[in-house]
């Protein structure tokens, strides 16, 4: 039985991660180098500032660059790309199906509240979530489980009756540590990363209905129970 779905935000509800990576790749391309995904990966799904792409660029090319100028140009390009992004496929259908099935909805994000709620409002879905927890609410961001534990506490749902939808290794590890069933829904960037902490991986929510997902979770739990061994 599932009583709560906890959504990540960046890369899961809205693909901010592919757009941000693309914007940095364009900056790097001006210096005839590329931003390696394995260098960028540690910054995905955790607190901002975990990776400094400008410092990394300087290390790669062996000289200083106009930091403030490049950050501003990246910001403008990132926001331009993001303004063209729709919600990821299947998100609205999951919200509708969860409402129909009486399942609570929450967001747990390592980003700021202004960032998360601003985009949810822009896409007209902020009211769909009973609980939104962000980096301001906790001491430790993902992969620490604090965000997920707080979402459970605020909704009054135990971990074994919840599921997490995530796209990143950091988020999946946080869900594992919170004892919540973790479903990976990778985007074009995180699909290239190791998502081994997922209990289940689906290519797209649009290709895997909520009811089918709940049935699959029940099957996995039944097969892994002591009685099945």
Helix content: 40-55%
CATH class of the largest domain: Alpha Beta
Largest sheet: 6 strands, parallel
Do you know the CATH architecture of the largest domain? Answer: 3-Layer(aba) Sandwich
For the CA atoms, what is the radius of gyration? 18 Å
| Low-confidence sequence ranges | none
β-strand number: 6
Per CATH, the superfamily of the largest domain is HAD superfamily/HAD-like
CATH overall fold name of the largest domain: Rossmann fold
Mean pLDDT score, rounded? 93
Shape: globular
SSE pattern: EHHHHHEHEHEHEEH
Counting structural domains, the number is 2
Structural class: alpha/beta
Strand order of the largest sheet: 3-2-1-4-5-6
How does this structure look, described?
The structure is a single chain. Strand 4, helix 8 and strand 5 form a beta-alpha-beta unit. 44% of the residues lie in helices and 10% in strands. It is globular, with a radius of gyration of 18 Å. It has 229 residues and is α/β, with parallel strands linked by helices. The two termini are 21 Å apart. The protein folds into two domains: 154 residues, Rossmann fold, CATH 3.40.50; 68 residues.
């Amino acid at each position: 039985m599932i009583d709560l779905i906890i959504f990540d935000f960046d890369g899961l509800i809205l693909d901010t991660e592919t757009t941000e990576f693309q914007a940095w790749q364009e900056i790097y391309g001006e210096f005839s180098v590329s931003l390696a995904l394995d260098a960028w990966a540690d910054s995905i799904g955790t607190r901002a500032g975990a990776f400094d792409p400008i410092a990394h660029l300087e290390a790669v090319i062996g000289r200083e660059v106009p930091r403030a100028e490049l950050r501003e140009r990246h910001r403008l390009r990132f926001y331009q790309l993001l303004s063209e992004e729709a919600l990821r496929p299947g998100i609205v259908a999951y919200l509708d199906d969860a409402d129909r099935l009486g399942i609570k909805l929450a967001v747990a994000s390592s980003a700021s509240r202004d960032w998360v709620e601003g985009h949810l409002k822009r896409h007209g879905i902020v009211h769909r979530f009973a609980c939104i927890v962000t980096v301001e609410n906790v001491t430790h961001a993902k992969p620490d489980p604090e965000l997920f534990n707080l979402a459970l506490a605020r909704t009054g749902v135990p971990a074994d009756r919840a599921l997490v939808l995530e796209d990143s290794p950091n988020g999946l590890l946080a869900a594992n540590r919170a004892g919540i069933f973790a479903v990976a829904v990778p985007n074009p960037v995180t699909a290239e990363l190791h998502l081994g902490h997922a209990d289940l991986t689906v290519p797209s929510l649009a290709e895997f209905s909520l009811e089918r997902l709940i049935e699959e979770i029940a099957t996995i739990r039944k097969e892994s129970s002591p009685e099945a061994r």
